[in-house]
Design a protein that fits this description.
The protein has 243 residues and is of the alpha/beta class. Helix content is 47%, strand content 8%. Strand 1, helix 4 and strand 2 form a beta-alpha-beta unit. Bound molecules: pyridoxal-5'-phosphate. The site of pyridoxal-5'-phosphate (PLP) has 14 residues, from helix 4 and helix 8.
Amino acid sequence: VFFGARLIRVDGHYSQINAMYRRLIGSGRVKWYDCGTDNPYRYEGKKTYAYEIAQDLGWRVPDRVLHPAAGGMSLVKTWKGFNELRAIGWVDRLPMMTAVQAARCAPVVESWKKGLTRVAPVDKQSTIASALAAADPGLLGDQALATIRASNGAAVGVEEADIIEAVRLLGQEGLMIEPSGAVTVAAVRRGVREGTIGRDESVVCVLTGSGFKDFDRILDLVEIPQQVVSGYEGMLAEAERIG
Ligand SMILES: Cc1ncc(COP(=O)(O)O)c(C=O)c1O
């Protein structure tokens, strides 16, 4: 909006609104630039995650890539990027791909656990990882399941408290990441705790969203003092109190 977008607020959850958006674009009634899932610059663009990861690691491929998943497109396209790199011989292996969702809205995780090849919708419950709450990911969700299987990966649902802890931990590392982006850190901690991820494995956690994208959630996690002190003595007393 700050950059000039005009905003329509629509009641409904992510998957419903996405379906309506696609119908609107398909109707030809508006002449909008479609930045949704059908835009090749979007879905081909997402595979550049793989290029960046491999390049940053000196053209080595990590054992695992953990990616936050809503529809699952980023996971699917990152996998595509790694496959392309291997096809041209720039890397010699592929990572295991893990989709991470909030346990409160985790259709990919639940379908994967049941061994399904088509993703089954879930009843959405609200989650702090609101950008991931796609209760009915549809075809992309099916592709995410196929990616997980092909890569010998996994799908992990993480609890709200663990997501919040991950956001806080990342803050201590100097990274302000929105809860939806921080789920991968919650997942890797759980995986190591439960022994599903080995301590010696190389793991890349993709942190998809800046905290500025979901700033209200970040503000909920910080405490701004209401009290205003005055004068040097007041400041000193408060400084000594907080240590
Ligand atoms: C911060 C963040 N991370 C991850 C995703 C997941 O995207 P995908 O639909 O590609 O799974 C989204 C989707 O909107 C997002 O906003």
